Q: What sequence folds into this?
């Protein structure tokens, strides 16, 4: 008797991430959530026969690109991230933590679009229409072509689209919209997939730019099924520290432009304002050189930003000294401390080590390693590395300095802001330390972190 070769279809699904399995388990194998796996409704076998074609295939050279031309959102920093502006028919997902300013930013985009006589529909499922109107009055976003609806039902939302026929649709948020006849509650995996698919389908067929607001989990990732990020054309993350008014929009996926761009904003009482030159927010103005400080030049997308690193190394009364870092990658700082101890004779195993950035900046790029090393050494020795200094370079485990990308752009930005000296890794083929001048700024090359410390006068004593 022939054995059946058909495989069992997944019968259980995680309500948090959409992971599927053929048998029940107490813990999700994808997101590790407990008690989230439940029996999924079985779906009928899909049809496989050929279907009629609405539009015949044509040579790619005959496809018109005029319908997908960029249109300005009215917010230049957002246009920078999107690669030029809003594309008709595009589906954009904007995610961020609660209170970071997502609704304020999108209300500003909707108002600017309506100001150019392009009809805009703003659908809110988290607030009432009157609450959104109060925010619009405060930020000056009241426009005749801006339509507002408070809905949580997908059918009613599609009716609003049919009646209004907007060029821009904003849904705040996709987790609050529910579809009748679909299993689960609004915000669940099945509901989010169905709602997002329906809205994207309408956006493509009617050429409507659609912006969906998404929630994030406590670890910062986008809530809901991973397929949601695959469905949309653009994924944006809105980042910011609650203790700072500075905000960043970062492109994580973009089918119409680069994914290495960021937009900078400042959250103010009158709304959200674009910040075209954010460097000054991350550099502290000292009247005199201070031990334990150094300025790094990091790349946020294709924009160089200068950020100050501050460190404090002090004797610890504890058996296990503390290691506290803010705005820095803790693993990389721990690696820098180990390299300083091994290759530079520093002894910090009995000291508390604190390191942070100024203004809420987040430095996760390896190019900030050298600035962290100089700040730590300066604090430990009690000596200043000098004023007007920037440090750029990745530190290897053997103590060498590695080259980083976009070095000319970083040096040009530091020179523009008045810094007089930079320590960088050597150029390829260079046989030893050398000095040169770039746009009026002295640039010193150092092959290793030990030589970089010597260049700024931080005397080293090798302990045996």
A:
């Amino acid at each position: 008797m022939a054995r059946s070769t058909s495989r069992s279809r997944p019968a259980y699904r995680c309500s948090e991430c959409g992971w599927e399995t053929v048998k029940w388990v107490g813990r999700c194998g994808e997101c590790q959530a407990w008690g989230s796996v439940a029996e999924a409704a079985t779906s009928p076998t899909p049809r496989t026969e050929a279907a009629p074609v609405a539009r015949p295939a044509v040579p790619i050279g005959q496809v018109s690109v005029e319908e997908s031309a960029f249109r300005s959102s009215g917010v230049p920093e957002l246009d920078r991230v999107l690669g030029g502006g809003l594309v008709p028919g595009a589906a954009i997902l904007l995610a961020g933590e609660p209170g970071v300013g997502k609704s304020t930013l999108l209300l500003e985009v909707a108002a600017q679009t309506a100001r150019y006589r392009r009809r805009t529909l703003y659908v809110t499922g988290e607030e009432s229409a009157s609450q959104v109107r109060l925010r619009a009055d405060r930020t000056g976003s009241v426009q005749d072509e801006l339509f507002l609806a408070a809905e949580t039902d997908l059918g009613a939302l599609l009716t609003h689209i049919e009646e209004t026929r907007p060029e821009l649709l904003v849904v705040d948020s996709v987790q609050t919209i529910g579809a009748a006849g679909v299993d689960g509650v609004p915000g669940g995996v099945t509901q989010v997939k169905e709602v997002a698919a329906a809205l994207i389908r309408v956006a493509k067929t009617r050429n409507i730019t659609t912006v969906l607001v998404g929630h994030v989990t406590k670890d910062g990732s986008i809530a809901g099924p991973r397929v949601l990020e695959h469905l949309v054309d653009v994924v944006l993350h809105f980042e910011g520290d609650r203790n700072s008014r500075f905000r960043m929009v970062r492109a994580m996926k973009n089918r119409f432009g680069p994914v290495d761009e960021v937009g900078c904003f400042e959250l103010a009482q009158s709304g959200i304002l674009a910040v075209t030159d954010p460097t000054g927010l991350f550099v502290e103005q000292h009247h005199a050189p201070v031990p334990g400080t150094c300025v790094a030049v990091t790349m946020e997308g294709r924009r160089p930003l200068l950020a100050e690193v501050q460190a404090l190394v002090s004797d610890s009364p504890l058996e296990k000294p503390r290691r506290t870092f803010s705005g820095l990658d803790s693993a990389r700082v721990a690696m820098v401390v180990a390299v300083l101890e091994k290759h530079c004779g520093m002894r910090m195993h009995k000291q508390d080590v604190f390191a942070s950035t100024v203004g809420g900046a987040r430095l996760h790029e390896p190019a900030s390693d050298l600035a962290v090393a100089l700040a730590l050494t300066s604090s430990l020795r009690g000596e200043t590395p000098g004023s007007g200094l920037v440090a750029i370079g990745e530190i290897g485990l053997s103590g060498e300095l590695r080259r980083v990308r976009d070095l000319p752009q970083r040096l040009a930005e530091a020179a523009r802001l008045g810094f007089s000296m930079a320590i960088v890794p050597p150029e390829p083929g260079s046989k030893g330390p050398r000095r040169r001048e770039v746009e009026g700024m002295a640039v010193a090359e150092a092959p290793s972190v030990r030589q970089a410390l010597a260049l700024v006068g931080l005397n080293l004593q090798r302990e045996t």
About this structure: The first helix runs from residue 76 to 82.
